[in-house]
Amino acid sequence: MKLFFRISVVAILFTLVFSQLAPQISANEENDASTTSYEQMKKEGKLDPDTTKEQYSELQTQLQQDKIEEKKEVSSDEFQNDTSTRAKFKLKPGDILVTNASGSSNNGLTGHAAIAKNSKSVVEMPGYGKHIRTIKFSKFRHNHKTGKGKYIKVYRVSSKKGKKAAKWAAKQSKNKKLKYSLGMNILNKHYSYCSKLVWQAYYYGAGKNTVRSKRSQQWVTPYKLAHNIKGAKKVKTYK
């Protein structure tokens, strides 16, 4: 009986001690994963040379917030009708495309963005190891299949600004030296990523006043892209 009592006491004490240590163990594992992720990204050239660990951490925090907000938006969209589901809908130059569909997350970024060159093609930075390119919109839709909470949303600004942004993006698409790399310097033209390309198309192509923030050091993620372009309004959702 005494032996059973002692074993029970030890078991209870062990449970109490482990419950106190568990959060610390988890926290340490998370910190290690965060450090490894940053170092690995730098080693593989997926972050531009000037990106600091603090800046990368800021990006990760923003992406986590994006995921939470995006899930809420998907849930609310399920109960809303798309007012622009007409079959005759056509892209216009400068239209901003944002998707959460398959193939939209590439090594760090959540979601994907592109800009319409005209009614039939888009310009995009497809991901690490790939060059900036112009592809058919039909191919873009094929690459990012919708359905079951997955979508491609189209945002539009004024025709004049859109055409200027599209023209800049089309010209930039010929620059095969442009590297896909994550960096906080939004004005840097040597490195780019999907949503940064679209932001720069408006900033450099249509004018500085087309963007909400002109800070040189900032992250512009796909899900926050439309908010960062003045006057951008959703005109179509492919579900």
Which strand order spans the largest sheet, edge to edge or round the barrel? 4-3-2-1-5-8
Give the name of the CATH architecture of the domain at 77-238: Alpha-Beta Complex
Regions with little confidence, pLDDT below 50 for 5+ residues: 9-36
What integer value in Å does the Rg equal? 23 Å
Total strand count, please?
8
Task: Determine the N-to-C terminus distance.
Answer: 66 Å
Q: Estimate the helix proportion, in percent.
A: 40-55%
> How do the helices and strands follow one another from N- to C-terminus?
HHEEEEHEHEEHHE
* Major sheet attributes: 6 strands, antiparallel
Q: Which structural class best describes the helix and strand composition? A: alpha+beta
InterPro entries: Papain-like_cys_pep_sf, Peptidase_C92
Region (Disordered): 28-53
Keywords: Signal
Biased composition (Basic and acidic residues): 40-53
